[in-house]
Amino acid sequence: METYKANTGRYETMQYKRCGRSGLLLPAISLGLWHNFGGVDTLENGRKIIHRAFDSGITHFDLANNYGPPPGSAEENFGRILASDLPGYRDELVISTKAGYYMWPGPYGDWGSRKYLISSLDQSLRRMNLDYVDIFYSHRPDPGTPLEETMMALDQLVRQGKTLYVGISNYTAEQTRQAAEILRQLGSPCLIHQPRYSMLDRWVEDGLLDTLEASGIGCIAFSPLAQGILTDKYLDGIPDDSRAGKPTGFLSPDRITDEVIAKVKRLTSIADRRGQSLAQMAIAWLLKDKRVTSVLIGASSVEQLENNLQALQSLQFNEEELQEISTVIEG
Ligand SMILES: NC(=O)c1ccc[n+]([C@@H]2O[C@H](COP(=O)([O-])OP(=O)(O)OC[C@H]3O[C@@H](n4cnc5c(N)ncnc54)[C@H](OP(=O)(O)O)[C@@H]3O)[C@@H](O)[C@H]2O)c1
User: Fold this and answer.
1) Which end of the chain has a smaller Cβ tally under 10 Å, C or N?
2) Whether residue 222 has its Cβ less than 6 Å from ligand 1
3) Per-residue pLDDT tens digits for 40-91
4) How buried is 62 (Cβ within 10 angstroms: 0-12 exposed, 13-18 middle, 19+ buried)?
5) 16-330 has which CATH code?
6) Model's pTM, two decimal places?
């Protein structure tokens, strides 16, 4: 295995955007390790994707305690790659992790209690062999735990130096408003919200983005390609090696209906006219909104990552294109 040396031109092409009203800049495109970096995947492929990402100015890598499978293995693999290839670059990286979904048996390994969040981040730090993460998220709101308890746990982790910033994911606009207010009072402002957002899922436009803007919170959009549906991947059926085709993939084949594929084909012809792939147009379409700080993509190969990064070459839309896209996605 050759020793990795980062590309010296890595900061020349990426755009960096301020995350809400904070001091932190995030790359317009960030990389998530939900799939393709677990114990079931090939470490060497993951390593190449991370090298290519960092070489392209992607400074932000997003994890969660449960990413794998098996749960925890994405953090372990990322920790291995950091230690072997990126040991001198920790201060150039923004690493995030989360807790909120099922992680270990019994009553303390799920949801949003102080007990779960604090022990989970300790476990994540051990798996990645890090002293601290840059962002720690409450992965989902917990209807059974007072919001104050979850937010106080986040605040405590900042005070302990185990995370620099805190964020929330999958919270509604109203839950976000309340969480942000509690965190503000505690003195550890909410840096960022991580919602699902793509041309096929626009729920954030119904209040959440306005709340984030008003509260000075950044937004990082996950599953921007609807897990691969907004690409050419499923135009002729479900390939065996795709997320929908693999037994370990989270994308249910039922989501790939004739109706969805008909939309994808119409969107592809708009992208063709713009001189882009559909994946590139789907990313650019999210970045047109100034409230979106970063688009959090996944990739199962270096080629996909390279294709997606080219979205940055063509970010402008004219009114006609936007109208045409809206007609297709609302139809
Ligand atoms: N906070 C949360 O609750 C939450 C939930 C989900 C995700 N996330 C975060 O968001 C990140 C991204 O989510 P995601 O992986 O669903 O994002 P995505 O970008 O919508 O989907 C990525 C998948 O699409 C396919 N793909 C990507 N580029 C392609 C291209 N150019 N051509 C063809 N296929 C392409 C690949 O799937 P194949 O394997 O089929 O090639 C790839 O793994 C995650 O890693 C995680 O960090 C957060």
Assistant:
1) N
2) yes
3) 999 999 999 999 999 999 999 999 999 999 999 999 999 999 999 999 999 9
4) buried
5) 3.20.20.100
6) 0.98
